[in-house]
From TrEMBL, chain A:
The lineage of its organism: Bacteria, Bacillati, Actinomycetota, Actinomycetes, Streptosporangiales. PROSITE patterns: ABC_TRANSPORTER_1 (PS00211), ABC_TRANSPORTER_2 (PS50893). It is a peripheral membrane protein. Residues 4-240, 251-494 form the ABC transporter domain. It is found in: Cell membrane. One of its GO terms (molecular function) is ATP binding. InterPro entries: AAA+_ATPase (IPR003593), ABC_carbohydrate_import_ATPase (IPR050107), ABC_transporter-like_ATP-bd (IPR003439), ABC_transporter-like_CS (IPR017871), P-loop_NTPase (IPR027417). This is Rhamnose transport system ATP-binding protein.
From TrEMBL, chain B:
It comes from Nonomuraea soli. The keyword Cell membrane applies. It is a multi-pass membrane protein. The lineage of its organism: Bacteria, Bacillati, Actinomycetota, Actinomycetes, Streptosporangiales. GO terms for molecular function: transmembrane transporter activity. This is Autoinducer 2 import system permease protein LsrD.
């Protein structure tokens, strides 16, 4: 019996079509797996179910009746509970208070009935088969236990649909087992579960059916018993490599960036890599594999615990970003709004922030010098804005990304690290960024490109490094790199190293 | 010139106009406001506030705050008094000791904020009490008031031919220095970046912690300089010197258009606000307005100063957007 049905649901964010006519039915008593590459639209789907985004088109049906979700409260009232990778509990409230937040049982004079709340919490955890003290504060609970609190919360308001967005990403083996036992028990009791995960073995262990998403479409739904990992991977990546990745051949020069045995506790372990002048090396892997963390440590934004970073043979000081920049390193970070730009400042200020010392004359920096420099680079990168004094927040995503690129290219780096350089920008700008990276490599810059878009990785890179759970697991030369080899390595099924 | 007008064409302009109005109305309505004596008095009043407001502007622009400034002033006064009692009679030596102590007290603030990652609001509330307490430990209820009288007359001596004290020139030179650092150097650009988005600042190679630390040191030293002036002007070192002055300073900085959330504001606005508050206070005192009313007026202005710039920014944003729709402007004509 289908409890919740999505009928041709579409959703766009500005120019980016995140979901295209998605059809999906969740059945009572069944766990339904959902897989797809980064950016395939899984998270958007989850957010629509959570009531966080409204769908542009299509309908949600609960028990065959149309459902309108104007906000998270509506989703909850309809019986849909969403459990995220990292739950958001109130750390200073008790477990029981968290579970009954805003729905506390009351007694006379609208006072909170603490005793009833405690008793009902104990009862919920009994049903889940996991003991937990209702009075302990949420602070200090492991992520696994926090998720159990979220599940108890879902039970407390009789949720019939449980959506879990990569719930196991931060869990250990035994914790995953315990979570699965709870989910199986919920299914037996008649709940419908949507289980989003990157880990195929978990999908196969838990789910009766599995759906694959790609480029915002739901491309297939099959009984889990009838598909293999290889088939799922093929469906996840199965698309043409477009001719929009013009990596020109460039002669390989001396090694400019050398990373040796770099480790940071809790993030990545023993990462060694080399990028030569004129080379574009891609760093592929799933979200959370530790790629951005490596970039941050190389650039000195985070300190590393072990290992060393050398630029042109000279060792960089641990955790010193200014020294890294002086040595010729530049990082175009993953999150341009939080890390790449100061949104409140003007285009000119942002574009010149990284080279403000070299722009200064006798220690003095004038707005005129900044505007001139910003104009030069803005024109070179074809930034479209109302002028150098416009706040960078008023620009489109693609133009903001160009400002970040201008900011770093104007420092004339010898090693350029770009982290998801084309995320969330339109196709035209994407092609411009690719052309630019290729041109830089042609001029002898060493480029390390972190990307979750496989076509981009395969089209641009001379070599593909793959990370999985904090380790570098594969180093694949251009000739051997295919979508499936990379994807298998990224999901921990690869071999070649 | 257009750049200057544009830079001031917002909240700062409101403050400057308010200053002109207060002066004009005061001169017409209150006897004595037009006299040179009045302006000498206003100058003496605002010198310590202005001295501390200079570094405070930078601190608040980076998103931090220092509430301990008046206590640093008090502790330097007390220490200078005690050194005098112990027989240190060289003025340069006393001034050097005071500045060193101020820098040290600021460094303690900076260390707690950057080294332990504590919020500056909490740290400096603590040191506000701590430093004032130490001042009382040193001097108790005593007042050291037997400085050579010529020190006081030197400190408040007028510029030849005018009634305004020469110390105003020192303030002006320091203000120019702080203004240049804030508005026309790479360091200043970094301060605005830090105040708006500390993470992006770190990704740009700005050492947020080191910069914050040195700002607190500078604030301590400038508070100590204000303490030196205080001691000399009144020829009196007491543990309660400058009690509550931090509110006057912060009120002036915020009224001057510096955002309490960091990242926004200009030094010119702050200087205008220091002058506005000083003039208003002295003019009303001259008009026999009771002290309680003065406090209420200062408090109201503080509220206005926090709300006002936000309204101006919103209005300007609306205007900017409509302007943008009409005239598309591009970097590249394409």
């Amino acid at each position: 019996m289908v409890v919740l049905e999505l009928r041709d649901v579409s959703k766009a964010f500005d120019a980016v079509q995140a979901l295209r006519a998605v059809r999906l039915g969740l059945r009572a008593g069944e766990a339904h797996g959902l897989v797809g590459e980064n950016g395939a639209g899984k998270s958007t789907l989850v957010k629509i179910l959570a009531g966080a985004h409204p769908a542009d088109e299509g309908a949600l049906l609960m028990d065959g009746r149309a459902l309108r979700l104007a906000g998270p409260a509506d989703a909850r009232a309809a019986g849909i509970a969403v459990i995220y990778q990292e739950p958001t509990l109130f750390p200073d409230l008790s477990v029981a208070e968290n579970i009954f937040m805003s729905r506390q049982p009351l007694r006379g004079l609208r006072r909170i009935d603490a005793r009833a709340m405690r008793a009902r919490t104990t009862e919920l955890f009994d049903r889940l088969g996991v003991p937990m003290d209702p009075d302990r504060p949420a602070r200090g609970l492991s992520i696994a236990d926090q998720q159990l609190v979220e599940i108890a919360k879902a039970l407390a308001f009789d949720a019939r649909v449980l959506v879990m967005d990569e719930p196991t990403a931060a869990l250990s083996g035994p914790e995953v087992e315990r979570l699965f036992a709870v989910v199986r028990a919920l299914c037996e009791a008649g709940s419908a579960v949507l289980f989003v995960s990157h880990r195929f073995e978990e999908i196969f262990a838990l789910c009766e059916r599995v759906s694959v998403m790609r480029d915002g479409r739901l491309v297939s739904t099959d009984p889990a018993a009838e598909v293999t990992v290889a088939e799922l991977v093929r469906r996840m990546v199965g698309r043409e490599v477009a001719e929009m990745y013009p990596k020109a051949e460039a002669s390989k020069g001396p090694p400019l960036l050398q990373v040796r045995g770099l480790s940071r506790r809790g993030a990545f372990t023993g990462v060694s890599l080399t990028v030569h002048a004129g080379e574009i090396v891609a760093l592929a892997g799933l979200v959370g594999a530790g790629r951005s963390e490596v970039a941050r440590a190389v650039f000195g934004v985070d300190r590393h615990d072990e290992g060393e970073v050398l630029v042109d043979g000279r060792r960089l000081r641990n955790g010193d970003t200014a020294a890294a920049i002086a040595a010729g390193l530049a990082l175009v970070p993953e999150d341009r709004r939080q890390q790449g730009l100061v949104m409140e400042l003007s285009v000119a200020r942002n574009a010149t922030l990284a080279r403000r010392w070299s722009l200064a004359r006798l220690g003095l920096l004038t707005g005129g010098a900044e505007r001139r420099a910003a104009r030069t680079w803005g024109e070179r990168l074809r930034v479209r804005s109302a002028g150098p004094d416009e706040a960078v927040s008023a620009l489109s995503g693609g133009n903001q990304q160009k400002v970040v690129l201008a900011k770093w290219l104007s420092t004339e780096p010898r090693v350029l690290i770009v982290d998801e350089p084309t995320r969330g920008i339109d196709v035209g700008t994407k092609a411009e960024v690719h052309r630019l990276l290729s041109e830089l490599a042609g001029r002898g810059v060493a480029v390390l490109m972190i990307s979750s878009e496989l076509p981009e990785v395969l089209g641009m890179a001379d070599r593909v490094l793959v990370m999985h759970e904090g380790r570098l697991v594969a180093d694949i030369p251009r000739a051997l790199a295919g979508e499936e080899t990379v994807m298998l390595a990224a999901t921990g099924h690869g071999g070649a190293g | 010139m257009r750049g200057v007008v544009r830079g001031l064409s917002s909240w700062e302009a409101v403050v400057v106009i308010a200053l002109v109005v207060v002066v004009a109305v005061g001169a017409l309505a209150i006897e004595g406001v037009a006299s040179p004596r009045f302006w000498r008095f206003v100058s003496l009043e605002v010198i310590p506030i202005a001295l501390i407001a200079l570094p405070m502007t930078l601190v608040i622009i980076t998103g931090e705050i220092d509430l301990s400034v008046a206590s640093v002033l008090g502790l330097t006064c007390a220490t200078m008094g005690q050194l005098w009692v112990w027989g240190v009679t060289s003025l340069p030596l006393l001034i050097a000791a005071a500045l060193l102590l101020g820098a040290l007290l600021g460094a303690v603030n900076g260390l707690f904020v950057t080294g332990f990652g504590l919020p500056s609001l909490a740290v400096t509330i603590g040191t506000l009490a701590l430093y004032r307490g130490l001042a009382y430990v040193i001097l108790g209820d005593r007042a050291v008031a037997d400085y050579p009288p010529e020190w006081a007359s030197a400190a408040i001596a007028p510029i030849p031919g005018l009634t305004i004290p020469w110390m105003i020139i020192v303030v002006a030179v320091l203000a120019a220095g702080f203004g240049v650092v804030l508005h026309a150097t790479p360091i200043g650009r970094g301060l605005y970046a830090m105040g708006n988005n500390a993470e992006a600042a770190r990704f740009t190679g700005i050492s947020v912690r080191r910069t914050t630390f040195w700002l607190f040191v500078a604030t301590g030293a400038m508070s100590a300089l204000a303490g030196v002036f205080w001691t000399l002007r009144y020829a009196s070192a007491r543990a309660d010197n400058g009690n509550g002055l931090e509110l006057a300073v912060i009120a002036a900085v915020l009224l001057g258009g510096v955002s309490i959330f960091g990242g926004r504001g200009r030094l010119a606005g702050v200087l205008a606000a220091v002058l506005l508050l000083g003039t208003l206070r002295n003019a009303l005192q001259l008009a026999d307005v009771p002290a309680n009313t003065l406090t209420i007026i200062t408090g109201s202005l503080l509220i206005v100063s926090v709300v006002g710039p936000n309204v101006v920014v919103k209005l300007r944003a609306r205007k900017d957007r409509s302007w943008q729709r009409g005239v598309p402007w591009r970097f590249s004509p394409r």
